[in-house]
């Protein structure tokens, strides 16, 4: 995977292992950038799950994210920690939309457990019902590259 330093001269780029760990363990929102039918940018804060080099997002089948991606499957994303020292991963990727309920259910379960702790709470149950009834889809983002930053080391040469 191509990784570039997002803030040259300050801090360091994350290594591939650090990117994997950051994306796997972080409970931060992913900010998903899409382009609407007017050619205007849209930003969507979403929950995500990272596995095998891909980012997964559960969303309503009728959401503007899905409409935009059907028009243009290239997206931009950013996951960053606002706490000092700043650290984050952003990038561009292509997106596939999955409407396959059998495939989507276990992925959505992982997202719900990551952000709500289990599947027994009201939010997880509501969202999982949408997946199981075909009202939701899974977005599978395949990153083309990552631009990363880790400001814990300060100014670099």
Description:
The protein has four helices and nine strands. It is an alpha+beta fold and 157 residues long. The chain has a single domain (3-152), classed as Electron Transport, Fmn-binding Protein, Chain A (Pnp Oxidase, Chain A). The longest helix is centred in the last third of the chain and has 16 residues, at 101-116. The protein is globular, with a radius of gyration of 16 Å. 28% of the residues are buried.
Properties at a glance:
globular, alpha+beta, 157 residues, nine-stranded mixed beta sheet, single chain, 4 helices, Pnp Oxidase, Chain A
Question: Could you give the topology of this structure?
Answer:
Layout: E1 3-5, E2 10-12, H1 16-25, E3 30-35, E4 41-46, E5 49-51, E6 54-60, H2 64-71, E7 74-81, E8 87-98, H3 101-116, H4 122-132, E9 136-155
Parallel strand pairs: 1-9
Antiparallel strand pairs: 2-9, 3-4, 3-7, 5-6, 6-9, 7-8, 8-9
Helix pairs in contact: 3-4
Major sheet = 9 strands, mixed
- Mean pLDDT, nearest integer? 95
Our measurement of the CA-to-CA distance between the termini, rounded to an integer number of angstroms, reads 24 Å
Compute the number of structural domains: 1
Q: Any idea what the shape is?
A: globular
Helix content: 25-40%
Number of strands: 9
CATH architecture: Roll
Rounded to an integer in angstroms, the radius of gyration calculated over CA atoms is 16 Å
**Backbone structural class:** alpha+beta
Helical segment count: 4
Strand content: 35-45%
Order of helices and strands: EEHEEEEHEEHHE
- CATH fold call: Pnp Oxidase, Chain A
- Please name the fourth-level CATH homologous superfamily: Electron Transport, Fmn-binding Protein, Chain A
